Amino acid sequence: MAQSAACYTGLLRMMRSPRWKRLLRANTEPLREAQLLETPVRERLAQGDGGTSRLLRQRKRLEVLARKRLSHFTRRGEASLGEVLGRLETLLSEPRPQPPRGDEPVLLEGRQGLRNLLSWPGTWVFALLALTNRYGLERFGRPAPMLFAGGALVLYYYLRCTGRFWLTAKRLMWQPRFGEPVQVSLASLGAQGISALPAWGEVRVEGERAFTVRHAGRAGLLASLLDLHRQSPFAGEVDGTPRVHEVSVLPAWRALESARSAKQAEPGVAVLRPGYAAFLPAGRSADVFRGLTGPGGRKPEADVTVELLVEHMRLLSEPEFDVRMRQVVLASGGELWHADEVRPGPAADSGRVRLGARGVGMELLADAAQAEATDRIVRRWAA
Length: 383
What we know:
Helices cover 44% and strands 19% of the residues. It is of the alpha+beta class. It folds into 3 domains: 2-93, no CATH class; 108-120 and 161-229, PH-domain like, CATH 2.30.29; 248-382, Roll (PH-domain like). The strands form 3 sheets. The protein has a 7-stranded antiparallel beta sheet with strand order 11-10-9-8-14-13-12. Strands 1-2-3-4 form a 4-stranded antiparallel beta sheet. Helix 1 runs parallel beside helix 4 (53-70) and helix 3 packs antiparallel against helix 5. The model has no long low-confidence stretch (mean pLDDT 82).
């Protein structure tokens, strides 16, 4: 009993310290010892021997504090104190995550900006206080306290509320400017494990780890790409490098071939492949997104475009790309023409290519960067 009390006392002292992570990383032996003592301590408490009240109080304090410390890493609670201590030992023994290197392609990265400072609630509170006290400043002529408070607020924001994130095909890593880096595996994120406040630049993730990407910019795009890559067909199947090379993605307009006015044309994206030509309407990006994630998926943010989604589809294998392209065309009300159906349309202005099939015309804006791929695919259609 004395050994248990001494172990609990030492572990409580370490876990109450502001530097508790550093202390426990340097020495995880108290966590391991407390786990080994769990069985005899519970047996002793179950017997109800005299003199166990102090030990019981210590154990309860330790359990409350251990669960609180575990919540810094994950929201998934463990059933018993022994499991909580074991989970803490495992998490604190893991090496710190490192930013992606050259062999791990980055899908998206971002950091804080001035726009995020302006959207921070603390800035608005300070502005409100400054406005309500402007008459006092004008009367007494002492702006120094207000300027000092403003500088302290900006410094706090810079040190505590900013950082940088990296999203890869496997993980999301967040490096706060002041604090430890943390990462979460995309495979551990559930349907309700992603929440975003794009106006504040924040994204909250809860998987094997729980944390908030704060004021890093591009929050809406980050939340949508997290939802896209955490599930099929991307989860576990892509590594971040494009695998579909024989493709040309171009701006395009769709209209009936009988239409005489260009105002009737619908903007979108043309996807040319050796076996087909597809058109996806630009205004149906939400439908394209749901065509990839399923009808129960979250609504994407406004900055998720059709072009961006097609670029991410190129990370899939070629057979999977073609299957998913048919799905998103059907979901978005686009067009899909087989190569033997496509025919050249009437001559267009310089830099534009016209195609047609089934009474529908499509005008493509030729891209110099993809001119070679476009010509090669069109020649294969004619072969």
